[in-house]
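Allow me, if you will, to draw on your knowledge of protein folds for a short while. I have a record of one protein: its chain in single-letter code and its fold written as discrete structure tokens. I should value your view on which stretches of the chain appear to form regular backbone elements. Thank you for your consideration; the sequence and its tokens are set out here:
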Amino acid sequence: MHPIFFTVGPLTIRWYGVMAAIGFLLATVIVTMNRKRANMSDNQVSALMFIAIVGGIAGGRIFYVIQNWSALFKDNLLEVFRVDHGGLVFYGGFFLATGGIIVYCRKSKLDMVRVLDVFAPGLAIGHAMGRIGCFLNGCCYGNVTHSWLGVHYPEGTAAWRKFFGDAVHPIQLYEACGNIILATVLLLLLRRTKRGITLSSYMILYGVLRFVDEFFRGDHSHDQLWFGSLTPAQAIGLLLIPTGICCLIYFLRKNVKENNQIND
């Protein structure tokens, strides 16, 4: 783990920011390549990507600050704006960015569902790069493990201080791999299925991935747990999974109905 990419004089570039930028570029490429499936122009893609990145960073940071206000920010207000140090809650960014995309689609008369279908695999690959950034930055670390997969963080890092130098799960890399696989699956669904299936599948599959993933996290404190045992991400995942299942059933039935009408 090495959080610094390079330093030139007073300018310090961190790996977290580099990987976030790479994730944004890869997501943009994926959305642009598939934009015609949602009848989007290049200008509309640019506008939507801008909304997504701003909403993602702002929402992710707001949720992170709320969750860690007493521990990290109450006595250090300037740190609220140091996004380069890491500290984004994915679901916060997901909901705010999605809300922004929905508003734009309505104003631009775009098919909101199909646009979100196109964005789903881009979101997954961008998230994968962000998780690699988390690993290099030393945040979002895993719990103690005696497995050969365990990694030792350097002395002085958050994981080292909490677990006294014991090996921990590289949970960020687990989730990065899961998101890469998810992005591949979603791209196949986008090109082979009809409206709404890709979006619904993302909600279900990522909800499951994140729910399981959270069991291996080690950076949560007891006062952050909901209902005494669930992390915030797990609680949200438990809502996201059934919502995705309901959406999937709805779109499958709707697609069957439309096919029957065409055949009639």
